[in-house]
Amino acid sequence: MAKEVTSRADNYSQWYNDLVVKADLAEQSAVRGCMVIKPYGYAIWEKMQGILDGMFKRTGVQNAYFPLFIPKSFFSREAEHVAGFAKECAVVTHHRLMNDPDGNGVVVDPDAKLEEELVVRPTSETIIWSVYKNWVTSWRDLPILCNQWCNVVRWEMRTRPFLRTAEFLWQEGHTAHATAEEAQAKAVEMVHVYADFARNVMALPVIIGHKSPNERFAGALDTLTIEAMMQDGKALQAGTSHFLGQNFAKSFDVQYTDKEGQQQYVWATSWGVSTRLMGALIMAHGDDNGLVLPPALAPIQVVMVPIYRAEEERSAVIAKFEAVKAALEAKGVSVKIDDRDTLRPGFKFAEWELKGVPVRLAMGARDLAAGTVEVARRDDLSKETMPLEGIEEHIPALLDSIQKGIYDKAAAFRDSRVEKCDSWEEFKEKIQQGRFLLCHWDGTAETEQKIKDETKATIRCIPVDSYVCEEEGVDIYSGKPSKGRVVFAISY
Amino acid sequence: MAKEVTSRADNYSQWYNDLVVKADLAEQSAVRGCMVIKPYGYAIWEKMQGILDGMFKRTGVQNAYFPLFIPKSFFSREAEHVAGFAKECAVVTHHRLMNDPDGNGVVVDPDAKLEEELVVRPTSETIIWSVYKNWVTSWRDLPILCNQWCNVVRWEMRTRPFLRTAEFLWQEGHTAHATAEEAQAKAVEMVHVYADFARNVMALPVIIGHKSPNERFAGALDTLTIEAMMQDGKALQAGTSHFLGQNFAKSFDVQYTDKEGQQQYVWATSWGVSTRLMGALIMAHGDDNGLVLPPALAPIQVVMVPIYRAEEERSAVIAKFEAVKAALEAKGVSVKIDDRDTLRPGFKFAEWELKGVPVRLAMGARDLAAGTVEVARRDDLSKETMPLEGIEEHIPALLDSIQKGIYDKAAAFRDSRVEKCDSWEEFKEKIQQGRFLLCHWDGTAETEQKIKDETKATIRCIPVDSYVCEEEGVDIYSGKPSKGRVVFAISY
User: N or C: which end of chain A has fewer CB within 10 A?
Assistant: First the structure.
């Protein structure tokens, strides 16, 4: 195999980095912390975008576009928000370059200093609420349900491709409502959209829950999250949905006249997922041979590799593949015939395994004579020789079965590593082994912080739809009373 | 009518601005020169994107994503390129804000100065060619056919919504080839994709041609353009495709080993269209009642307005509309029933006219009894009462006819204002009246500049597929020999 991948057992972190680069998903650029998303990686992201966008629109959300730049003064209107983002933002201070008078190439023109610096958006609540102020007068103008697909910048010190990059792509939904109840319901609705997408499209079993106050988005009254387990047992926050109360409406003075003629501040939500989902996809399903893509997100669902010696064998096999390809495409399956003439079949097999293509068909002269084809599944690496007849019915069913198989495998893995824990000694040991531990918590930020300081573990969420455990108990660390268990884990 | 629009005759420029705002397409933001694209405007842009993206992919192009930021030093590697963009770019110099020690809110942290300033991309040739260097070793790695949909920033001093904004959305294709011929052919292919899109989707008759050297993209050996005429007779450059020679390959040392084992520099193209197309769409087709959208780009193709007095009339009409809507949607037509109860039909009519919806259906109790419906066309404002039966066949055909009608009208208008001109006195007069003048040109930048200085007119293109006029003559200004006519106009 041309592009060898570090095994997960040897070095999980290096395995991840290898997959990103060797499966042609992304690479580092010359700009610190900014990545290039390569065509194969971007094709997966485009599929994610397309499916999510349709899901959003079916809930009544519309897309719009708001400016990249945020005036510095906006940034500081919401106190918690600025505290959360000010330390890691790209600041535009000038609008012109010039030739260095001393001949040292191009320099920033000191005469082109901006009156007010502009921050490259790390998230858009402030600029969007400054706009919503113009859009809202009466209760008839509500709700506003907008989303934007865009790039954002957070000047992270330690970056990893997809998981944490200085610039990343995402969507951010921002809604405005007349009542707190309606806004809260929207935040809940959207986290369920994310969970539905994660489970049914990404084949990612996720736990939905509330963040503890410590882990909330800067400026939110409540943050809902979906948390996924990676193969090292660490947690990855895959999407969040925030109930923002009236914080931004008050900061930007967004009020409406209600049906009784009274002025009221508007209620807000925001919610987002990013190219981080690509990291989750890779880490949740990949194996030591490379990516394992759920069929719903695979840019190529079926790859066909001809096996031949002579040219006439080649053309006969490819002609047969062309016919199968047309039949499969008519059923909505995306197919590629790998007819490259300079590479051996074994090399091609390894390359498509590395790229996670769900199904591989191989056919040679003997198959052609016998009317058979070799069908290989990427997820369990099984192979089967079967009749070519009826293959166009078999493949779509096989893809469904692979989609389900990948989910079931991830769910079984997770379930085997989620456990209740009531002993602090046990906690310290197990959390390092990669477990989601369901523990009693006394509800204080202080205890949460102490546990984090000692073990790096954080409260991933207070679960609401799976692993819910509302029972009396005592905090695993402080021994104080608790009303239910929360999910602790070490996270990405 | 609630939202009155300035007439074109009174003030064409104000008419345009009115349409942008009052049809809910876009608005100014708090950031100088940056606009907010509102949901209705963005829905049109999304349709443009979707159709263009499909056209690109059918030519073998793949999408990817490259960083927003470009190191300042990259920017200066290609001499002409830096000259073209350095004067109008946003420069990131710091990566952190802090609380002002003097208590004046938030300030830039002087300790967080970047070692090397970053330029917010005005276009991505430099960063992309720094990446292509890693992708290219041998002739087998070529061609590279990448496109990205993204935002770019050019610090324009005078901005107008969609036409010229500091930040705008666009796509930029960047291809790398083994030979000059192949790159040139790609540049030609892509300008024809743009022309096809402009003509058949935007209903915009465009002239394809080469730019004169003066008007070329900074760093290009040849720039192909599509030029459209607006209703004031001015030209709008709607898309460009550049043959970049080996300039960027040499600046970033991108070489490949050819089949003979020799090292060769790679040949490049780039090509782009932007949200400027929105401006072209508005200005080419709109009238004094508002937008006129070609059906191929209308987010809503058919709007249905019920006419009623009593509630039972309302529900009966809406029930009938629902049935028609379902039948039309099954044929791929996008339909909205305007069932708002607080607005009069006349108000709704005006609003949907303003928003350019191609077809309006109105139905009242009398229509219901008679089995008829009133069908109004947006393009020519004609109305017709016709049988409801068979309406689901009639509407798709009507939409096709409107699409063609809008194109034909724009083409007839343009043809009436394109003329040959051989007299300098006549040129000066007619160019101010809004004409495309086909004139002889001696081929020198000097003459071109003098004509521009005296009249503001520029060479829009040396046409290649329509209005081609290769005949001997004398330059309209200098009197020197010329080998053919070029298109002069005043442009946006």
Answer: N
d(CA B299, CA B283): 18
> Is B76's Cβ below 8 Å from some Cβ in A?
yes
Orientation of helix A39-58 relative to helix A276-285, angle to 10°? 110
Two structure tokens written together for A39: 């065509």
Q: What is the dihedral of CA B409, B413, B416, B421, to 10 degrees?
A: -140
Q: B134 — contact with chain A (CB < 8 Å)?
A: yes
Note if the bond before B143 is cis, omega within 30 degrees.
yes
**Residue A110 contacts B, CB cutoff 8 Å:** no
Which domains, from first to last, does chain A contain? 12-285 (3.30.930.10), 302-398 (3.40.50.800), 417-489 (3.30.110.30)
* Average predicted confidence (pLDDT) for chain A: 96
Pairing between β-strand B458-463 and β-strand A144-153 as defined by DSSP bridges: unpaired
| Spatial distance between the Cα atoms of A296 and A419, rounded to a whole number of angstroms | 30
* Minimal CA separation from A180 to chain B, in Å: 24
Is B449 touching A (CB cutoff 8 A)? no
Å between A169 CA and nearest CA of chain B? 9
> Nearest CA to A20 among A40, A34, A1, A2?
A40
Contact yes or no for B120 and A88 at CB 8 A: no
The residue among B401 and B82 whose pLDDT is bigger is B401
pTM of full prediction above 0.80: yes
Is A91's CB within 8 Å of B93's CB? yes
- Closest A-chain CA to B65: A37
Answer yes or no: do A82 and B150 touch at CB < 8 A.
no
**Cα(A50)–Cα(A57) distance, rounded to whole angstroms?**
11
Residue of chain B nearest A50, judged by CA positions? B50
- Cα–Cα distance for residue pair B174/B133, rounded to 1 Å: 13
Residue B472: what are its φ and ψ, rounded to 5°?
-65, 145
Q: Which of A46, A98, A150 sits opposite B86 (nearest CB)?
A: A98
- Is the minimum CB–CB distance between A78 and chain B shorter than 8 Å? no
User: Is there a contact between A127 and B68 if contact means CB atoms under 8 Å apart?
Assistant: no
**Facing A91 at nearest CB: one of B63, B94, B105:** B94
Q: How many CB pairs under 8 A join A and B?
A: 191
Output the CA–CA distances (angstroms, integers) from residue A159 to A75, A315, B97, B104, B474, in the order listed.
24, 48, 20, 32, 63
ipTM, two decimals: 0.96
Cα A429 to Cα A123, A454, A462, B211, distances in angstroms: 37, 12, 22, 70
With beta carbons less than 8 A apart as the criterion, state whether B459 and B257 touch. Answer: no
**pLDDT tens track for B256-293:** 999 999 999 999 999 999 999 999 999 999 999 999 99
Q: Name the minimum distance, in Å, from the CA of B193 to any CA of chain A.
A: 21
DSSP state of A389: T
Cβ under 8 Å to A: B residues 294-353: 342
Q: How many CB atoms lie within 10 A of CB B421?
A: 21
Q: Do A86 and B66 touch (CB under 8 A)?
A: no
Rounded CA-CA distance B212/B488 in Å is 11
Pairwise CA distance, residues B278 & B19, whole Å: 12
Q: Please give the C-alpha separations between residue B170 and each of A168, A208, B26, B53, in angstroms, as whole numbers.
A: 18, 37, 16, 12
Of A35, A38, A91, the CB nearest to B92: A91
Please indicate whether, in this complex, the C-beta atoms of B42 and A30 are within 8 angstroms of each other: no
Nearest to B294 by CA among B418, B414, B411: B411
Dist CA A488 CA B3 (whole Å): 56
B63 in reach of chain A (CB within 8 A): yes
Categorize the per-residue pLDDT at B78 as very low, low, confident or very high, splitting at 50, 70 and 90: confident
Longest dimension (CA), chain A: 84
